[in-house]
C-alpha cells in the first residue's frame, strides 16, 4: 500500500508508537494501584460556631407599655449552629472540594432547659441526616420566648466507614482509642503475633496472656471467636456536647468559645487516581476510534483490489477476461455445489486414470444394484 499511499508509512509508525504508549500507561496504572495503599483520608479541623439572634423582645420595643401583640410580632429567638473547615497548614496546589457542615454529622440534637407546660412546641429538637437531603453550612432553630434559655447541643459524628470507641483495657493493649472494627482486629492480630500467643500445633488456638485474660475473661480462645470478643470491647463514639445559653437581651449573641473538631476528608489525589484508572468513558472513545481506523483500512484495501483489477484489465484485456471468467466459473461451481467437466479433458485417456474414477464406478454400481433389488421386490 505504501506505493500508492505514502502516508501509510506514517500510520505504521503511529501504530508502533501506540503500542509503546499502551505499555507506558499500563506501568503507570500499576504504580497508581500501588499508591492506593496510602491513607485514603486527609485530616482537617472543623471549627464550630454557636450564636443566636433575638427579635421582637420587650427590651427591644420602643414602647415597653404596649401590650398589644400577635403571633407575627411575638418575642422569639433563633439559634444558629454553623461550622467551616480551617485552611490546611500546608496549602495544596489544587483546592480541596469544600464539604458543608452537616455532611460531618449523622444527627444533631438540641435540648432546651425550659418549662414544657409553657412551651408546648417541645424542648428537644432533632435533626437526622437523610440520603436525599442536601448538605448545608449550618442549621437554625427558631422558637418563641422572651427569656434566656440554657441549651445543650449534641453533635453525633458521621464516620464512613463506621468508627468505634475502644475500651480502656483494649486501647492500652493495641494503642488505639478510636478506629474501625477492621483496624482494631488488625492491631490485635499484630499484638498476638508479636507476643507469640498462637498454639504451636494448632494456629487457630490462641493462648491469652494476662492482659487478654483480664480483658476477655478467658485463658484460651479460638480465632473464630475473637471478633465477638472484640465487639464486646467496642462502643459508639461519644458525641460532641456543647452547652450554650441563648440570650435575648440583645439582637445578636455569640459564644465566646469556638469548638474545634478533627474530621477526615476523602483524599482528592487518591480519588483522582481512582477515576483515572477507571476512565471507562475514555476507553470507550478509544475503542470507537479503533473501529473507525479498522473501517478505513478495510476501505483502503478494497480500493486497492479494485485498482489492481482495472490495472490488469488495461494491460491485457483478453487474457484478463479469460482468467476472470474461469475464476467466476469455479466460484459458481462451489456455490451451486456442482462439478462440471471440461470437454477437452474427457477426450484424454489420462482423465479416466484419476483416483476419483474408481470411487465413481463403485457408487454407480451400488446404485444400480439397489435399483435392481427394488425392482425384484416390487414384482414379488
Shape: elongated
Please write the CATH class name of the domain at 41-159 and 239-266: Mainly Beta
Parts with pLDDT < 50 across at least 5 consecutive residues:
none
The description of the largest β-sheet is: 5 strands, antiparallel
Q: Classify the helix fraction into a percent range.
A: 40-55%
CATH architecture of the domain at 41-159 and 239-266: Sandwich
Task: List the SSEs and their pairings.
Elements: H1 8-35, E1 41-55, E2 76-85, E3 105-113, E4 124-128, E5 138-144, E6 149-157, E7 163-166, H2 168-174, E8 178-180, H3 181-194, E9 205-207, H4 210-216, E10 220-222, H5 226-231, E11 234-235, E12 240-246, E13 252-254, E14 259-266, H6 268-278, H7 280-315, H8 317-336, H9 343-346, H10 355-379
Antiparallel strand pairs: 1-2, 1-13, 1-14, 2-5, 3-4, 3-6, 6-12, 7-8, 7-11, 9-10
Helix pairs in contact: 1-6, 7-8
Protein name: SWI SNF-matrix-associated actin-dependent regulator of chromatin sub D
InterPro entries: SWIB_domain, SWIB_MDM2_dom_sf, SWIB_MDM2_domain
Domain DM2: 159-236
Amino acid at each position: 500500500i505504501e506505493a500508492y499511499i505514502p502516508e501509510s508509512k506514517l500510520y505504521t509508525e503511529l501504530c508502533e508508537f501506540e503500542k509503546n504508549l499502551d505499555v507506558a500507561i499500563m506501568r503507570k496504572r500499576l504504580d497508581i494501584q500501588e499508591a492506593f495503599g496510602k491513607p485514603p483520608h486527609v485530616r482537617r479541623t472543623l471549627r464550630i460556631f454557636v450564636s443566636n439572634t433575638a427579635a421582637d423582645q420587650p427590651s427591644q420595643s420602643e414602647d415597653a407599655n404596649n401590650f398589644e401583640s400577635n403571633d407575627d410580632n411575638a418575642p422569639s429567638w433563633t439559634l444558629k449552629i454553623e461550622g467551616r473547615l480551617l485552611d490546611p497548614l500546608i496549602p495544596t496546589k489544587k483546592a480541596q472540594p469544600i464539604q458543608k457542615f452537616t455532611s460531618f454529622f449523622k444527627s444533631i440534637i438540641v435540648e432546651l432547659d425550659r418549662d414544657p407546660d409553657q412551651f408546648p412546641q417541645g424542648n428537644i429538637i432533632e435533626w437526622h441526616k437523610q440520603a436525599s437531603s442536601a448538605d448545608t453550612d449550618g442549621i437554625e432553630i427558631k422558637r418563641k420566648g422572651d427569656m434566656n434559655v440554657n441549651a445543650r447541643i449534641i453533635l453525633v459524628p458521621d464516620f464512613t466507614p463506621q468508627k468505634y470507641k475502644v475500651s480502656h483495657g483494649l486501647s492500652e493493649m493495641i494503642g488505639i482509642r478510636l478506629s474501625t472494627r477492621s483496624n482494631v482486629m488488625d492491631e490485635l492480630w499484630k499484638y498476638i503475633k508479636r507476643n507469640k500467643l498462637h498454639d504451636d500445633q494448632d494456629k487457630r488456638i490462641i493462648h491469652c496472656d494476662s492482659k487478654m485474660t483480664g480483658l476477655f475473661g478467658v485463658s484460651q480462645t479460638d480465632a473464630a471467636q475473637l471478633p465477638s470478643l472484640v465487639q464486646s470491647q467496642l462502643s459508639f463514639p461519644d458525641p460532641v456536647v456543647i452547652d450554650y445559653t441563648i440570650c435575648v437581651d440583645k439582637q445578636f449573641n455569640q459564644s465566646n468559645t469556638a469548638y474545634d473538631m478533627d474530621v477526615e476528608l476523602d483524599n482528592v489525589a487518591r480519588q483522582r487516581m481512582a477515576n483515572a484508572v477507571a476512565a471507562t468513558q475514555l476507553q470507550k472513545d478509544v475503542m470507537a476510534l479503533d473501529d473507525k481506523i479498522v473501517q478505513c483500512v478495510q476501505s483502503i484495501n478494497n480500493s486497492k483490489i479494485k485498482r489492481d483489477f482495472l490495472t490488469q484489465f488495461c494491460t491485457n484485456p483478453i487474457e484478463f477476461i479469460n482468467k476472470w471468467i474461469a475464476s467466476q466459473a469455479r466460484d459458481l461451481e462451489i456455490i451451486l455445489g456442482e462439478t462440471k467437466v471440461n470437454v477437452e479433458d474427457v477426450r484424454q485417456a489420462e482423465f479416466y486414470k484419476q483416483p476419483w474414477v474408481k470411487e465413481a464406478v463403485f457408487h454407480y454400481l451400488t446404485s444400480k444394484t439397489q435399483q435392481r433389488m427394488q425392482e425384484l421386490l416390487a414384482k414379488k
